[in-house]
Amino acid sequence: MIKKCLFPAAGYGTRFLPATKAMPKEMLPVVNKPLIQYGVEEALDAGLTEISIVTGRGKRALEDHFDISYELENQIKGTDKEKYLVGIRRLLSECSFSYTRQTEMKGLGHAILTGRPLIGDEPFAVVLADDLCVNLDGDGVLMQMVKLYNQYRCTIIAIQEVDPQETNKYGVIAGDLIGDDLYRVRNMVEKPAPEDAPSNLAIIGRYILTPDIFDLIKQTEPGKGGEIQITDALMKQAQNGCVIAYKFKGKRFDCGGAEGYIEATNFCFENFYKTGKAY
Questions:
Q1: Residue 58 has what pLDDT?
Q2: Does 278 reside within a domain?
Q3: What does the pLDDT read at residue 190?
Q4: Residue 90, domain CATH
Q5: Stated pTM of the model
């Protein structure tokens, strides 16, 4: 059973400056909850209770959020405002939280490798909090992926179709269809130009990884900008065994930029806040 979920959260959030100059991008509120809380809730709903977060300088707010605030809770005790803490209290009671720091920003692959002491030698999920994923008609995205892992016992990556002109923003896969919305990966390219992209199936911020990925990341040479790309390590894994790409059911919002963030806020306001499900 997968129990651990890793949140790489050390990045600068440069697409959202100046808001992220002094505040972690993962703490940007979508209506009344920070992005990272949506991700942790998704993980818990999938049965992942051991939450590991890779932080960096200026990210102390993440640790403070997943902690008890005695003064605040005492002030609102017995008032109707207590309902706003129901969700976070559930996370604190049902999840454990551990943290480590990434001292240099050297790409997603390096961030995941930094989390190795928290994960150990077992399969784990990875969530990028600025990709907010929701599914109103059934299981959350991570739950869908956990069920697939239980069946296939190999690395699972979430994908979605994107505009072919936007492939230069994503890792892009090519693969052989092996089931409904399932592809066995045979090629993977990081941020290809549209004319070089092997498909329009883009990797988004949900992964289930087997522990051999750590050694593969260590063997991966830095690429453009000195960053260690997780796609390069995943490609090695695909060549050695099996990596499955899954076109998930649900919606994904890119909250690292203003347009996706506003779309997510409007969606969550209509579907969660106004219906009383936002807490």
A1: 87
A2: no
A3: 87
A4: 3.90.550.10
A5: 0.94
Q: Does residue 81 belong to any structural domain of this protein? A: yes
Number of domains in the chain: 1
Contact 172, 202 (CB under 8 A): yes
Strands of the chain, DSSP E: 4-8, 29-30, 33-34, 50-55, 96-101, 124-127, 131-134, 155-161, 171-179, 182-190, 201-209, 243-247, 251-254
- The residue written with tokens 């050695």 in the block is 240
| Beta-carbon contacts of residue 254 (< 8 Å; ≥ 6 apart) | 130, 131, 260
Domain hosting 161: range is 4-273
Encode pLDDT of 223-243 as tens digits. Answer: 767 889 899 999 999 998 789
Q: Which pLDDT belongs to residue 277?
A: 72
Q: How far apart are CA 115 and CA 270, in angstroms?
A: 36
End-to-end Cα spacing for the chain: 28
Using CA atoms, how far apart are residues 102 and 120, in angstroms rounded to an integer? 17
